[in-house]
Design brief:
With about 220 residues, this protein is α+β, with helices and mostly antiparallel strands. The protein has 2 domains: about 1-135, Secreted effector protein pipB2 fold (2-Layer Sandwich); about 150-210, Nuclear Transport Factor 2, Chain: A. Helix content is about 25%, strand content about 45%. The protein contains 3 helices and 12 strands, in the order ββββαββββαββββα. The chain has helices spanning about 40-60, 120-135, 195-210; strands spanning about 1-5, 5-15, 20-25, 35-40, 75-80, 85-95, 95-105, 115-120, 150-155, 160-165, 170-180, 180-190. The strands form 3 sheets. The protein has a 4-stranded antiparallel β-sheet. A hairpin with a 2-residue loop joins strand 2 and strand 3 (about 20-25). Helix 1 packs antiparallel against helix 2. The longest helix is centred in the first third of the chain and has 21 residues, at about 40-60. It is elongated, with a radius of gyration of 25 Å. It starts with a strand and ends in a 12-residue tail after the last helix. Pfam families: PurA.
Length: about 220
């Protein structure tokens, strides 16, 4: 935990199927909580930016003059990109002082979240990141094994294809239904496979027990 002026910052390394990341939570003096998420490789890039922002901040010298502030408050800006996320780094100043605002956005209109680090604490924040990166490295990790081969199933005049893929959101299964002049597909995230399996299994058991749900010839 970092205490920087009236704010507390918690930096925790987490892991999911996409890999390892750092959750940064900011708790303000009023108890409000904000958080962003950084892949380890992004955290390493952020650490470098913190050094350059700190050097720039040190070169500014005297505290800001409330009567002579930049129109938008920005003194220096950078941007980082990781998969479908963008991070905007803005060193700003207002009547209360100087601070680094870190905003995280997700492509396609996702939610925007941000934290604000008091400028005096950027070096301390960088050092805390360094400690975590030295312990856990900068490799994001994630699933690196060989994905299963695709499968094919023919039912009457339909063909079903089961293909396993991976993107920046994780592993998924795409089930395609193909007929003459017709094709449709659904994509199921890996974390939901077991739930789909349980539902299918439940219906299979119910039909074995004499349940009804289709015509006598087995067609829906």
């Amino acid at each position: 935990m970092l205490q920087i002026q009236s704010k507390r910052f918690y930096l925790d390394v987490k892991q999911n199927r996409r890999g390892r990341f750092i959750k940064v939570a900011e708790i303000g003096a009023d108890g409000r909580r904000s958080q962003i998420f950084l892949a380890l490789s992004t955290a390493a890039e952020f650490r470098g930016h913190l050094s350059s922002f700190s050097d720039f901040y040190a070169s500014l010298g005297s505290p800001p003059n409330p009567d002579n502030l930049p129109e938008d408050g920005k003194l220096k800006s950078e941007m980082m990109t990781k998969d479908n996320r963008r991070y905007y780094l803005d060193l700003k100043e207002n009547s209360r002082g100087r601070f680094l605002r870190v905003s995280q956005t997700i492509a396609r209109g996702g939610p925007r979240s941000q934290i604000a680090i008091p400028a005096q604490g950027m070096i301390e924040f960088r050092d805390a990141l360094t400690d975590l990166l030295e312990e856990f490295g900068t490799d994001d990790g994630g699933f690196k094994g060989e994905l299963p081969e695709g499968r094919h199933l023919r039912v009457e005049n339909k063909n079903f294809y089961f293909d396993i893929g991976q993107n920046n959101r994780g592993i998924y299964m795409r089930i395609s239904e193909v007929k003459t002049n017709y094709r449709t597909a659904v994509t199921i995230p890996e974390k939901s496979w077991s739930r789909f399996r349980d539902i299918f299994s439940d219906y299979v058991d119910k039909m074995k027990d004499g349940g009804s749900g289709g015509n006598e010839d087995g067609r829906l």
